[in-house]
Amino acid sequence: MKKNTTAAQTSSVGRQARLQASAEPYGDAKRKRGQRSQPKASTSQAKASASQTSAAAVPIPAPTPHPGNGAVPYRDLCTRTSRNIHPHVKPRSDFELCCLAERAYEGSVEEIYARLDKQYANYIAIDGKEETDRLTAKILNTYMEPTGIKPRPGEQSPRIIIRPIPDTQYSLRLFPGSLTSSEYCLDFVDNETGAPVNSAFEFELWAVPDWDNPLAGLPIVQKMRSIENAHNIDTKDIRPGQEKFILRDGQTCVLARPGKMKIRFEVPIRPRPASETVQEEQMLVLDIPKFVD
Questions:
Q1: CA 24, 28, 34: angle at the middle one, nearest 5?
Q2: What's the CA gap between 98 and 75, in Å, rounded?
């Protein structure tokens, strides 16, 4: 199957869910084989259950409390991603919603449904239908801090910053990612349409020390790669408009283009949410100027 950016996007958006899924239901260290609440289903039973996703009532875990750090339900992220990747395929269950959001399927709607049925059958043959449905719902009902989810067309926010790039028809766009991880994202958009584009011109993006305080922050110069390239996806194979770079709050960057003046910019810094477990130490702050002549 052709390479796509879904794996990279899933890494930034749903890494906590995947870690939880791999550690809880399917990790060898956690799994207690032979101690399931129901006997292992046969292949024929599994296929029958796969086509009857609403046959039995399964207790659905309640959503986890909102952490208050800009996180959103993972279910919402999967719904949006699934619609973008498979606009003509409607998920028939939570399991299918997860699958359709995590990878791109090829073929007709009927062929995709058949593959999803087979995947579902494989899961319930191992862990049973009830446990599979319960764990899927649990993952979907958790809150995630997304990184790499691009703004919707026309979406505006003080944290979405767009600046034109001289001598091109494109602009640099910064939009927020995970607040807890201090991640900010960068991509490029067409000035006329506002649509994101992939490497529409020749450039290099570099992370450099703070221009005003070179001893603080990142002390080295580093060439930045897109999140897709970091996941071994060639630039030519990135889905149209999905290329993105992951930066850090307060990071200083330089955009270099052959034969053009370099462009330097600093990533915005967002206020950190107050921690409920760590109390800030009280101290006296001396009034010393930050810059002097």
A1: 90
A2: 8
User: Which token pair is 9?
Assistant: 């996007």
Identify the pLDDT of residue 199: 92
Q: What pLDDT sits at residue 285?
A: 85
Q: What is the DSSP letter of 256?
A: E
CA distances from 137 to 58, 61, 140, 171 (A): 10, 7, 5, 40
Q: Phi/psi of residue 106, each to 5°?
A: -105, 155
**How confident is the model over 249-270, as pLDDT tens digits?**
999 999 999 999 999 999 999 9
* Whole-number pLDDT of residue 20: 43
CA atoms within 13 A on the CB side of 235: 11
Query: Can you tell me the distance from the alpha carbon of 163 to that of 253, in angstroms, rounded to the nearest whole number?
Result: 14
Q: Which bin fits 278, alpha (ψ -120 to 50), beta or left (φ > 0)?
A: beta
